[in-house]
Amino acid sequence: MASPVLLPGQYSVGHDNAPNAFVYGGLPPNVANNIQISNTQTDTGSINVQDQAVVGHDGLLFGVDTLPGMVVTQTGQAYTYPGGGAAAMDSYSALAAMWNDPTVRLFDNSYQVLRAYYQGSDVTRRCYGRGRKIMPSYGQVFNGLVPFTAQFQAADNTWYEDVQSSVTLTMVPSYFGTLTPPLTPPYQLSQTDYYQQSTISNTGSLPTWPVFTFHGPISYPTLTYVNTPVSTGYNGILKNTDILVIDTRPWNRGVTLNGVTTGIAGLLTGSALISMQAQPGATLVRLGGQDPTGSSTCIVSWYSATLAIGGSS
Fold first, then answer.
1. Per-residue pLDDT band at 86 (split at 50, 70, 90)
2. Per residue in 149-201, pLDDT tens?
3. Of 37, 184, 238, 248, which one has the fewest beta carbons inside 10 Å?
4. How far out from the chain centre does Cα 93 lie?
């Protein structure tokens, strides 16, 4: 299911790829739900440092610096024109209900998507997290206005491209070779591994988190970043109906086999999932494993990543 298409100045909040996500904001004549956003601010938070003083001397040894997830703060107003506060309060109530959606906030590891077609931009961006505090001010209801401030806690400090990119990797049969005389029955083909390579093209300025979806039949499937030591895989056999998903995204990181998580993570091989970020530019990837049918696939999907809420690409 596709997310709703946004017009310039509009936002949406809801489940990932939910067609019923709540759309708000915009300028006349494109106003959605009688809500306007006057300001959107992003706070990337304070860096968590692990520096250490040099023992017995001046100076500082720098450690690993990490960032918390950004907080997106929006100020705006629900309104009705002309006058009358009832419709304004109804519009605010609809936004607040989605902002603190109980089907998200009451469950572990669930999240929302905040999407923005920022005024003056040429693209829609998205970030992942949860709606937090949303606070109205009712002092102007008699004028048909309900000003409010809303905060969205993101999982990281990244805005992602709204359109998902993907490549599909396939394999020709792993056992494919020639007969070499002298021949002695039973005849056996020499084993030759064939691999198809393709490219993750991250057009943003920041690393991004791909998702790998393996479709059987394949034994011991692997996905490798070519010319690097980075790889991930599964120490098992996938039947032709099996679907293995390895999700590297921090807010949804994990592995499922046919939608089930129990007992699967321990069968992962290769690098830690935190190592699987695709850097800006091109990352060459290769599917490996044993598949005598040549019909298995691995779909690599990703959203290019940037720090900006908008832009041109």
1. confident
2. 999 999 999 999 999 999 999 986 544 445 455 555 554 444 445 567 899 99
3. 184
4. 28
Identify the CA nearest to 52 among candidates 43, 64, 42.
Answer: 64
Alpha-carbon gap, residue 234 to 220, rounded angstroms: 5
**Which CATH topology does 10-157 take?**
Elongation Factor Tu (Ef-tu); domain 3 (2.40.30)
Q: From the centroid of its chain, how far is CA 270?
A: 22
Give the CA count within 13 Å in the CB-facing half-sphere of 62: 4
φ and ψ at residue 49, rounded to 5 degrees? -105, 155
In the chain, CATH 2.60.120.860 covers 165-306
Task: Collapse the DSSP code of 219 into the 3-class scheme (helix H, G, I; strand E, B; otherwise coil) and give the result.
Answer: strand
DSSP state for residue 278 in the 8-state scheme: B
How much is the CA Rg of the chain, to the nearest whole Å? 25
- Alpha-carbon span 255 to 260, nearest angstrom: 8
- The phi-psi region of residue 184 (left if phi > 0; otherwise alpha if psi is between -120 and 50; otherwise beta) is beta
Which CATH architecture describes the domain 165-306?
Answer: Sandwich (2.60)
- 29 upstream amide cis, omega within 30 of 0: yes
The ranges of the chain annotated as CATH 2.40.30.200 are 10-157
Around Cβ 132, how many Cβ atoms within 10 Å?
Answer: 15
